[in-house]
Recover the amino acids of this structure.
């Protein structure tokens, strides 16, 4: 009984001290029990190694098991358009009522990637052939002549711009490469003078869409090949050798331009002047409100043509006159018939028997990819209610260049998105000195666009062409200047064609004064 008590209690510790003669027989009797306990401790050691606590013997802390992705941050922001594991996928356009041809075309717009450098384009057989085709057209048109750069003259640089043309069914028709001069390096009074050239107003194009939807008119699209090369160049302009095709140029040799080229400041004016003379020769008249709109009437028959640089839209109810105009233009200029209108100035056009739908889905996806917000969380509204944005003192400033670039893209996107018109108008007021709160407002608009990438304007056949206008205004909505904001929109044929939101020039003393 005394031995069991000593092995299990605290009295076993004195066994390490020098034994006395009185306890020596008891210690010798306890040794077999201690040896019997040691195997139990050895059996526990393999269990400790199995659960990964071996490192705890040296560090005294629990160590996590090894893992391949330990310490690697998750990939949250990616420029890729397709993210299979995205928590917030990009909202697609509703395709339930679209034809197979329209679905294929909208899907093909984002399928092809453009080369970013000349070397990358030359490494691809398709893009290399497109560049060689462009060079042959320039030589055939006698665009320039090689010469030695005169003393005191500064040449204009040039670069390649690439695009892909699709067929109506979505398949790739051709790869297009265009040599563009860097006109921003030109000097006024030396290598250019007059530059003004009208371009088609987006409001005019929307009015044509509404009339075409109500009247059932067809929309045709034409493209002028190397349109600017048809304009004569009167100034003395020198240009560097084209990138990738400068092996035949010696040191000090440049190109003296004889015809206008894309990118030059005076090129649009030279081309549009020649095109206007041709249209007037065919019996068309220019509209007084939009000089890029040409009209011709024959009784109750009407033919309309609008042009934006080298892209044309032809519509009307005079099939004979439209066919004759097509033949005359093709004999006067080198053009290409693109068939039914599908894609115009970054705007996707979808047509049914009684409706026309326009949107800028591809433009939104490119904007999301450029800003790195493909995987962002969408917002429900483009702007907070009672946002109160104004210039504050002592706040952090945002990146001015990035802010201006993003707002500029949003302004062009608002041509088909009236739902963001007010929000874009507010953030565009701080372009001169954007602050952190203003940048957050811009990013919220982009987050809203992610959830509504396929939204646009629908033009229905309402059976009339009546003009309706609505206007409204707030009172002292600007917290900084206490000025009011006016807004209006107009409808032609029951379809929305124009809208605007603008801050008033003076401070209104009452809500009645703000609205009148």
């Amino acid at each position: 009984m005394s031995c069991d008590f000593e092995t299990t209690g605290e009295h076993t510790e004195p066994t390490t001290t020098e034994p006395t003669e009185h306890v020596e027989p008891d210690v010798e009797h306890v040794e077999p029990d201690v040896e019997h306990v040691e195997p139990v401790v050895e059996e526990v050691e393999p269990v400790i190694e199995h659960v990964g606590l071996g490192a705890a013997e040296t560090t005294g802390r629990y160590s996590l098991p090894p893992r391949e992705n330990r310490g690697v941050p998750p990939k949250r922001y990616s420029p890729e358009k397709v993210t299979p594991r995205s928590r917030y996928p990009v909202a697609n356009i509703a395709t339930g009522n679209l034809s197979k041809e329209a679905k294929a075309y909208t899907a093909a717009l984002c399928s092809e990637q453009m080369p970013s450098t000349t070397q990358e384009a030359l490494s691809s057989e398709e893009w290399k052939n497109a560049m060689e085709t462009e060079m042959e057209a320039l030589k055939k048109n006698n665009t320039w002549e090689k010469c030695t750069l005169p003393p005191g003259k500064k040449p204009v640089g040039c670069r390649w711009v690439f695009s892909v043309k699709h067929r109506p069914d979505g398949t790739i028709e051709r790869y297009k490469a265009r040599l563009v001069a860097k006109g921003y390096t030109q000097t006024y009074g030396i290598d250019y003078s007059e530059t003004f050239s009208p371009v088609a107003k987006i409001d005019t194009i929307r009015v044509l869409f509404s009339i075409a939807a109500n009247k059932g008119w067809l929309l045709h699209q034409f493209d002028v090949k190397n349109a600017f090369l048809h304009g004569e160049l009167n100034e003395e302009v020198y240009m560097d050798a084209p990138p990738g095709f400068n092996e035949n140029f010696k040191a000090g040799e440049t190109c003296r331009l004889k015809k206008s080229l894309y990118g030059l400041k005076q090129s649009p004016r030279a081309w549009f002047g020649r095109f206007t003379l041709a249209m007037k020769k065919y019996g068309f008249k220019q509209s007084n409100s939009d000089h890029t709109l040409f009209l011709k009437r024959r009784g109750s028959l009407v033919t309309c043509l609008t042009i934006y640089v080298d892209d044309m839209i032809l519509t009307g109810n005079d099939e004979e006159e439209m066919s004759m105009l097509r033949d005359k233009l093709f004999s006067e200029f080198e053009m290409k018939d693109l068939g039914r209108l599908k894609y115009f100035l970054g705007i996707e056009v979808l047509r049914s028997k009684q409706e026309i739908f326009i949107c800028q889905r591809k433009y939104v996806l490119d904007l999301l990819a450029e800003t790195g917000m493909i995987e962002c969380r969408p917002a429900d509204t483009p702007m907070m209610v009672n946002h109160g944005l104004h210039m504050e003192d002592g706040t952090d400033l945002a990146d001015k260049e990035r802010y201006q670039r993003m707002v500029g893209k949003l302004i062009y996107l608002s041509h088909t998105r009236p739902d963001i018109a007010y929000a874009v108008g507010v953030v565009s007021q701080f372009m001169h000195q954007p602050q952190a709160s203003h940048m957050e407002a811009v990013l919220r608009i982009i987050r809203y666009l992610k959830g509504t990438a396929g939204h646009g304007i629908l033009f229905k056949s309402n059976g009339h062409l009546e003009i309706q206008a609505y206007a409204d205004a707030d009172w002292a909505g600007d917290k900084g200047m206490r000025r009011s904001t006016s807004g209006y929109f107009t409808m032609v044929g029951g379809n929305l064609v124009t809208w605007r939101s603008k801050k008033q020039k003076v401070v209104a003393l009452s809500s009645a004064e703000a609205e009148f």
In short: The two ends are 111 Å apart (CA to CA). DSSP finds 14 helices and 18 strands in the chain. The mean pLDDT is 80. The longest strand covers residues 172-181.
